[in-house]
Amino acid sequence: MLKSACSDHPIGKSWLEAWRNVAETCGLIYRPGWSKDSYFVGAVLAAIGYWIVLSVAGAVSPQRGTGSDSLVVLSIVLWQPLCEEVFFRGVLQGILLEETGRRLLFGPLTLANVVASVAFASAHLPTHPLLWVGGIFVVSLAFGFLRERLGSLYPLALLHMYYNGGYLLLTGWMQT
């Protein structure tokens, strides 16, 4: 109803067009079929290897949570991935993609992806060991590639939540 009312009015039409442009730039468009994408499925399966490598390499600091830390768990598994995806791969990578014309840097990696991944990994420096941050950078490049391939942040937010949930299990946070 609102969409048809807005699209019939000149101001509403321009507002809707502006919103579509912002949503497209930031990856806030839902695109079906992402769960069957072979690269997405590969990223889901790669998480297990990622956690094993970081654990064996000693890049994980054991932590202990309690049942009263459910808000912390919700933050790490739901809120933080959503906010990080919207900011780093939605806004930052989306704007850089438009500004750089999707210029490739290394193989399928765009300049926008590399810059957003450096920023994303750097944001984790204060709270994670350096080896873990290096792993985060590699995962961020894969997530950035998927963002460009799938054109949507929704699957990436779910994937990020999955990775963070595995992180909590790996560090022992959710053990009772």
Automatic annotation (TrEMBL):
NCBIfam families: JDVT-CAAX
A Pfam short name: Rce1-like
Transmembrane segments: 39-60, 72-92, 104-123, 129-146, 153-174
Phylogenetic lineage: Bacteria, Pseudomonadati, Nitrospirota, Nitrospiria, Nitrospirales
InterPro entries given in the database record: Rce1/LyrA-like_dom (IPR003675)
GO MF terms held by the record: endopeptidase activity
Record's keyword terms, sorted: Hydrolase, Membrane, Protease, Transmembrane, Transmembrane helix
Protein name per Swiss-Prot or TrEMBL: JDVT-CTERM system CAAX-type protease
Keyword Iron attributed: no
Keyword Isomerase listed: no
Top-rank lineage group of the source organism: Bacteria
GO terms of biological process kind: CAAX-box protein maturation; proteolysis
Domain CAAX prenyl protease 2/Lysostaphin resistance protein A-like: 71-164
Organism: Nitrospira tepida
